[in-house]
Design brief:
Elements (H helix, E strand, L loop, with lengths): L1 H10 L25 E8 L5 E9 L2 E9 L2 E11 L2 E7 L4 E7 L2 E8 L5 E10 L2 E9 L6 H9 L1 H5 L2 H12 L5 E9 L2 E7 L2 E6 L33 E6 L2 E12 L2 E11 L2 E11 L1
Antiparallel strand pairs: 1-2, 1-16, 2-3, 3-4, 4-5, 5-6, 6-7, 7-8, 8-9, 9-10, 10-11, 11-12, 12-13, 13-14, 14-15, 15-16
Length: about 280
């Protein structure tokens, strides 16, 4: 069960992953929700609930997110803006991401180490207003565990499973100049699937309520059990993750605070095993 929990901690992220890339209401990099998150709590089945995130705001702008695991500090990300648009996110270790834009769309995201050396670059391609492909290019000459940790809690960690992250780490440790390509497809305003090499995840049974992270910045979100939304306007009811003969199916049950999720219960089945957790959201 412990091993399954570790695998799912990254995989489940992709589902709430539904934000800034598909919205036509605001330019990419602008996050100004009608409800503002204050705290996120996580509870595994049979265990005590714990604080996982605290969000600090400067007026309508998200200033920082502090991350915890079972009461212990794990990290902090701070946001820098040009007007209302995020241009940089820096963590407490000195690693940072810089965002560049073309009109209302993301162009590139570049990750740097504390010495200002470029390590990874994301390049975005579009089908109309929606991101259809993301290509990752690697520039670092050696493996950096802190970078992998940052990427895990960042944008790439929201898209790839544990196995997918191992592919990325292997390419970096082998000094590879190869690229990783992620292909995205949609149904209306919601993400239908993400495919990366021989793995894919599909989403279905969306509700009609608002995803609170819609239009959120695509970097950061350390807690991979709670941030499942970066590409969808609504909240998915089911996801299926496949890599070869390996399949995990997860269903999601929501309670709501008005039009926004108040709790998200995930129930996952993998072979003869099952795994359940609940995320609780407090708003300002």
């Amino acid at each position: 069960m412990k091993k399954l929990s570790v695998v799912l901690s990254t995989i489940l992220v992709i589902v709430i992953v539904s934000v800034s890339f598909t919205s036509c209401e605001d330019p990419a990099g602008v996050y100004n929700p009608k409800k503002k998150i204050a705290k996120l709590y996580q509870k595994e089945l049979g265990e005590a609930e714990y604080l996982s995130q605290e969000w600090a705001w400067d007026g309508d702008k998200l200033a920082s997110i502090t991350f915890y695991y079972e009461g212990e500090f794990e990290g902090m990300d701070e946001y820098t803006y040009d007007g209302d648009r995020v241009v940089k996110v820096r963590d407490n270790y000195g690693y940072y991401a810089e965002f560049s834009y073309l009109d209302k769309q993301f162009d590139k995201i570049k990750f740097y180490d504390p010495n200002r050396e470029l390590m990874v670059e994301y390049v975005f391609q579009y089908d109309g207003k929606k991101i259809s492909k993301i290509t990752l290019h690697f520039y670092d000459d050696e493996m950096d565990k802190n970078l992998i940790s940052m990427m895990n809690r960042g944008f790439i960690g929201q898209l790839l499973s544990k196995e997918g992250m191992e592919i990325v780490a292997k390419k970096m440790s082998n000094h590879s100049k190869e690229s990783v390509v992620m292909n995205l497809s949609y149904e209306g305003d919601n993400l239908a699937s993400i495919k990366v090499e021989d793995e894919s995840i599909t989403f279905s049974n969306y509700d009609t309520h608002t995803n609170v992270l819609y239009n959120f910045c695509p970097f950061s979100t350390y807690d991979n059990n709670t941030i499942y939304y970066i590409f969808s306007k609504n909240n998915p009811g089911k996801s299926s993750y496949d890599i070869g003969a390996f399949t995990i199916t997860t269903s999601y049950i929501y309670t709501y605070n008005g039009d926004y999720p108040a709790t998200i219960q995930s129930n996952t089945v993998y072979g003869d095993e099952s795994y359940a957790s609940t995320t609780r959201i407090e708003y300002k």
